[in-house]
UniProtKB/TrEMBL annotation:
GO terms for cellular component: endomembrane system; membrane. The chain crosses the membrane at residues 12-32, 181-203. It is a single-pass membrane protein; Single-pass type I membrane protein. Pfam families: EMP24_GP25L, LRR_1. It is found in: Endomembrane system; Membrane. Signal peptide: none annotated. Keywords: Leucine-rich repeat, Membrane, Repeat, Signal, Transmembrane, Transmembrane helix. PANTHER family: TRANSMEMBRANE EMP24 DOMAIN-CONTAINING PROTEIN. It comes from Prunus dulcis (Almond). This is PREDICTED: transmembrane emp24. InterPro entries: Emp24-like, GOLD_dom, GOLD_dom_sf, Leu-rich_rpt, Leu-rich_rpt_typical-subtyp, LRR_dom_sf. Residues 37-124 form the GOLD domain.
Length: 347
């Protein structure tokens, strides 16, 4: 007798488990893309049944400056009355008692033009009450307990689906945020590079205008320049050009160009007619141009520590020359230099 009771208890427990498993999974899960207004319909068999559910916007395009403000959900009963409303949210849970049996309408409204994908879960729960038990002899308290357990499991399952949808949404939000950060960083680097390039161009133009202005200013002032001294070694190609430009200083009376790596004196030097003092020491000159004889006002000529190997005979025509310094050169003789034509010179 006792063995049969255990056998019947085991069968009853197995039956309860099978019934619970058979009832689980009756949650309606949908994925809805909402462009403007999208509606889902669910039929409720019994009055006062519990209608519960949730929705989460899981896939949407996030604006650059802010997140999407969310959707509106309006639930309408068969009689046309609104039984639940959610405004401007990206996810929500709802639960209400059905005022009557019939077709219920769940409408999502998207106030923006960006399409939104919504994970929507809905469940209609029915638990027999004492009035139903009195009318139906097949119902007993065990069936009511099974229904209550079933609804509890359905609630847990519904909550799990909601949390899973929120997790998907959060992953999508994180990925979208990461993309925005990358795009913002790349855009920032491009903007900085463009700004740097523009600054370089602007500074170059500014200096170009400044140098041009200074050159024009100096050109005007240099026409009356009388004393000029250069001592810094320039790049080799520019030394001869600088000396050629100096030849345009007509009022120059004193010129000192020492340690300037000069190899040749340009012929234009003969145009500086007012030059009285010329110091070309510590350079690399090997000879003088014949035009140096045009410097009739020259009083002192210093070319010490060069590489002179010969002197032009026209140097004798500088009758006002008093000082001629030729020390530390490679001269072996004064050549055709006529000293009697230079009575005031000290060599």
């Amino acid at each position: 007798m006792e063995g049969r009771q255990k056998e019947w208890s085991g069968k009853a427990l197995m039956l309860m488990v099978l019934l619970l498993v058979s009832f689980v999974g009756k949650i309606a899960s949908l994925s809805v893309t909402v462009n403007d207004i999208e509606c889902v319909y669910e039929y409720v068999l019994y009055e006062d049944d519990t209608v519960s559910g949730n929705f989460v916007v899981v896939d949407h395009d996030i604006f650059w400056g802010s997140d999407h403000p969310g959707l509106d959900l309006i639930v309408t009963s068969p009689g046309g009355n609104t039984v639940h409303t959610s405004k401007g949210t990206s996810g929500d849970k709802f639960e209400f008692k059905a005022p009557r049996s019939g077709m219920y309408k769940f409408c999502f409204h998207n106030p923006y033009s960006t399409p939104e994908t919504v994970s929507f879960n809905i469940h209609v729960g029915h638990i027999p009450n004492e009035h139903n038990i009195a009318k139906d002899e097949h119902l007993d308290p065990i069936n009511v307990k099974i229904a209550e357990l079933r609804e509890a499991l359905e609630s847990v399952t519904l909550e799990q689906k909601y949390l899973k949808a929120r997790d998907v949404r959060h992953r999508h939000t994180n990925e979208s945020t990461r993309r925005r950060v990358v795009m913002y960083t790349v855009g920032e680097y491009i903007a900085l590079a463009a700004a740097s390039a523009l600054q370089v161009v602007y500074i170059r133009k500014l200096f170009s205008k400044s140098v041009g202005y200074n050159r024009a200013y100096l050109c005007g002032k240099s026409l009356t320049l009388k004393d000029l001294e250069l001592s810094e070694v320039p790049p080799r190609p520019s030394a001869l050009q600088i000396m050629s430009e100096i030849a345009g200083l007509k009022c120059l009376t004193k010129l000192s160009v020492c340690d300037f790596s000069i190899r040749y004196l340009p012929p234009e030097i003969g145009c500086v007619y007012n030059l009285e003092y010329l110091d070309l020491s510590f350079n690399k000159m090997k000879s003088f141009p014949a035009e140096i004889s045009n410097l009739n006002a020259l009083i002192a000529l210093k070319v010490a520590n060069n590489k002179l190997v010969e002197l032009p005979s026209t140097l004798s025509s500088l009758q006002r020359l008093e000082i001629l310094d030729l020390s530390n050169n490679k001269l072996t003789s004064l050549g055709f230099l006529e000293l009697d034509l230079m009575p005031t010179s000290r060599i």
